[in-house]
Amino acid sequence: MRGMKYRRREVCLEGGVRLVMESALSARDRVGVQDFLLLENYNSEAAFIENLRRRYREGLIYTYIGSVLVSVNPYRELEIYSKQNMERHRGVNFYEISPHIRDQCILISGESGAGKTEASKKILQYYTHICPTRNNTQTIRERLLQSNPVLEAFGNAKTLRNDNSSRFGKYMDIQFDYKGAPIGGHILNYLLEKSRVAHQNHGERNFHIFYQLLEGGEEPLLKRLCLEKTTPQHHHYLVKGNCPRVSSISDKNGWKIVRNALSIIGFEEEEIQALMEIVASVLHLGNTQFGEDEEGETHVTTEPPVQFLSQLMGVDALVLKEALTHRKIVAKGEEMISPLSLEQALSARDSMAKAIYGRAFTWLVQKLNQSLAFKDEVYYSSKCSSVIGLLDIYGFEVFQHNSFEQFCINYCNEKLQQLFIELTLKSEQEEYEAEGIVWERVEYFNNKVICELVEEKHKGIIALLDEECLRRGDASDITFLEKLEDTLVGHAHFVTHKMANGKVRKAIGREEFRLLHYAGEVNYNVNGFLDKNNDLLYRHLKEVLCQSDNPVVSQCFHEEELMDQRRPESAVTQFKLSLAKLMDILMSKEPSYVRCIKPNDGKQPGRFDDVLVRHQVKYLGLLENLRVRRAGFAYRRNYEAFLERYKSLCPDTWPNWHGELADGVATLVKHLNFKPEEYKLGRSKIFIRFPRTLFMTEDALQAQKQSIAVTLQTSWRGYRERVKYIQIRHAVIAIQSWWRGVKGRRKARHRRQAADTIRRFIKGFILRNEPRFPDNQYFLDHVRFSFLMKIKRNLPKSVLDKSWPNPPPSLLEASELIRSLCTRNLVNDYCRRIQPEWKKQLEQKVVASEIFKAQKESYPQSVPKLFVASRLETEEINLKVLQTLGHDNKYGIAVTKYDRHGFRARVRQLLLTASSAVLVQEAKIKQRIDYGTLLGISVSSLSDGFFILHVPTADSKQKGDLVLQCDHVIEVVTKLAVMAEKMHNVNISQDSIRFAVARGKEGVIDFIRGSDLRVVKSKNQPTHLMNQRQHPSHEQMI
Ligand SMILES: Nc1ncnc2c1ncn2[C@@H]1O[C@H](COP(=O)(O)OP(=O)(O)O)[C@@H](O)[C@H]1O
Ligand SMILES: [Mg+2]
């Protein structure tokens, strides 16, 4: 409801569409002023009413006076309660809602038919729609909404003022959790107008439920209840007002709604059945008639209703009849039964009907409360939850004939008006004083005096009524009236026929008293006051009801009640006490007011009755209310709350103000450029005179919020990222240190291993010459390994490469083995790769080496010179010789042959064949020596070219040993030795060689070292000796 005022001021969050809607709405709202505070001529009643009228004509039924909402009943459906529209009021601006120190409550007042109940329903709808829901709050929300039709069916009725008039007071608490979702509810009910059950004024009806049941009840149900469909006129309790049907009410539809609501709320079928049995019982009770027999004894004249009743209530019909016509009196411990007069029986019947219905209604409210109760008490009691109370109570009522009920109802309204005065007008002015603010005092009518007239102890009307009820003897309604006259004589607000004079006297009946209520004068007829206040139900009837097997009745009537001897509180005192409690509740909360105004008496849409409205405006004190507000300030808030909300608008107060609160507010206000007439600073509060000043401030805040949000966001994000970063850093460090640990440990292990290895190595080195055992095996292995590796790296590449690593002592043997292996390998390799000629060459060279090495001086020079296949070309040899030899020639060389006689030198050729050595002169074969006959070969150890072939002299064919000389003596001798296989028969002489000459003679060749080569025949021994000089240092002698 509060939101309605400030819908224009909502911050637009959803962009353009919403803006358009907003502006359309506010354009409509510009009819008149939407807040009376903005009214130019605020002292004029006419201007006030004109504003209401103009707005009413446009369908704008709500107008504010500051925080009080004035509502004028439109008597037609408006389209302002759509869900869409409700959405717009979500997020009401804060400044209408005070800080939630206290719970809130909404007080709806206004006379009967002004629209209080409708307003309360709209508020409930608004809250249940607008508030967020949790899954489990969905049912609570439904139940809250559905509690209304049920209560209205049983507690509302058509009156002359209102077709749906509440005949009971209702205060409903809606509980919200910390998120604002409705989580429960609780209903307090006040004084149901029970008299209506048995009697209705002309043009009025009984409670809706009776008609609904008859109109809408399903056939089987009605049958069970012994009722017939659509027969209100057959029921005595429904015909008193002579108004069974009302055009604005569809009872049939009403039944469906109630039936459905009962199920949603969670009533069980048996309970609904029992409840309907009670409703039906009341109807049957109404149809029960009595008569007097000749002896004047009262008896029941209508059998069927009693039978139905006994059937429905589960009590014996006879017992019931007896109880309806007799009363039990306990006197001096003895129980006596005395018959009732016809009148008493009728009254007893009616009081039974009222009692059953009244208690069933209370039971119904209890059931509703059970179903609405928030189950989780712990949760509810937590500070996070909040409560909004909603008071919809019967409005001020004036009829032609006003009775006890109107007295109570109007007293209640008097109390509410008092509360309103206390909380708005009075407290407002007191606040200015307390805050030391200069203001203009506004006079207003304080209805306290009327409240006291009614409720004062001993002297008040209620006290006097109770006193009269208790008085034994001839106490009656008339004696009560007299008592009032005696006691209240001269009271400004109390008049009776007797007390008044002239015109007034005429207007007051003899059995009436008049109260001058704040809302107007009301005449109350005292008839029935005592009875209604006593609210007596004969003991006899109570006993019967206690025996009932209807589950609801048995819950409503207890045996203990019968035992209790104390007199129960009178009806009006109960009402007074419950009202006092209600006032305490309301006082403890922060109330918001909805003041309902009835535009006309005819329930007509669009008709605005000036007189009627003016009257209401007056008694509701709306003008005073406005004047007080205008004299003062539109808005006030204690410094702390104000600063807390707006501090962000001034750099000096944002984010925190550390000095005095008052100084902070002053700084803030100065920064906001408030004009001096716009505000005042009180002792603890700031007062802002015009709403627009506040609006501007609020708008600025809304704009600022954006940037605050960004700042908060950035710092929050920064914080979050920092936290994340620190976490990551920690993680990184942890991983790093772990990894470093691993690495470190690994390194340490390596070092240790290395140290161990070195130690083992050194130990092994020291013990290297010991036999292999664990202490030195590592070293030895290492030595072996490294030596082998060394060998591997330095293996000789060729046969001639004699290099070889020095082996350690322990591997001498192995080294040698490897070396020889290696050499063999190389040789093998070499051999495999060698050419046949070269092989031959080498074989011959080997033979030469074997024969001549270190034996003959010229050998070393011969080594590098290669042996050749032959020193003679084939052409150089005579063809004839070749033919003779059969081309068996392997080797040929030119030689000098020294004769055996005379040692003359002759040029010859020496040819070597496969089987013999042949000496050739031109074409003549001079001498042939078969290898088999060759005895040996002799050469000197010097550098000469002599070689002698020894042959056997006994053979006559042989001419003796051959003395030859050539340039390639080593080559020739080697080849010959190889061919003749005489390698071991080569004789190398140091100084002389003896040789055989034919016929047993012997020659000698002496070799003498000299500077050149000469062959000299010895003179001393002419036949035997030859001297020969070779080279400079050699001399050879033959
Ligand atoms: N806001 C409203 N919109 C439409 N009709 C309304 C509105 N308020 C009241 N009425 C009409 O006025 C009648 C009486 O209203 P109600 O709230 O029962 O009065 P009260 O509770 O003050 O006695 C309702 O039945 C309804 O027809
Ligand atoms: Mg009502």
TrEMBL record:
Species of the source: Danionella cerebrum
Biased composition (Polar residues): 1019-1030
Entry keyword annotation includes Nucleus: no
GO terms assigned for molecular function: actin filament binding; ATP binding; microfilament motor activity
GO cellular component entries: cell cortex; microvillus; myosin complex; plasma membrane
Residues annotated as signal peptide: none
Chain positions covered by the region annotation Disordered: 1019-1038
Taxonomy of the source species: Eukaryota, Metazoa, Chordata, Craniata, Vertebrata
InterPro entries according to UniProt: IQ_motif_EF-hand-BS (IPR000048), Kinesin_motor_dom_sf (IPR036961), Myosin_head_motor_dom-like (IPR001609), Myosin_TH1 (IPR010926), MYSc_Myo1 (IPR036072), P-loop_NTPase (IPR027417)
Protein name in UniProt: Myosin motor domain-containing protein
Region (Actin-binding): 579-601
Domain TH1: 856-1029
Compartment annotation: Cytoplasm, Cell cortex
Binding site for ATP: G110, E111, S112, G113, A114, G115, K116, T117
Assigned keywords, A-Z: Actin-binding, ATP-binding, Motor protein, Myosin, Nucleotide-binding
One GO process term, biological-process aspect: actin filament organization
Organism superkingdom: Eukaryota
Main location: cytoplasm
Family: Belongs to the TRAFAC class myosin-kinesin ATPase superfamily. Myosin family.
Domain Myosin motor: 32-702
PANTHER family: MYOSIN, UNCONVENTIONAL MYOSIN-IC
Pfam families, per the entry: Myosin_head (PF00063), Myosin_TH1 (PF06017)
Keyword Cell membrane: no
Membrane spanning stretches: none
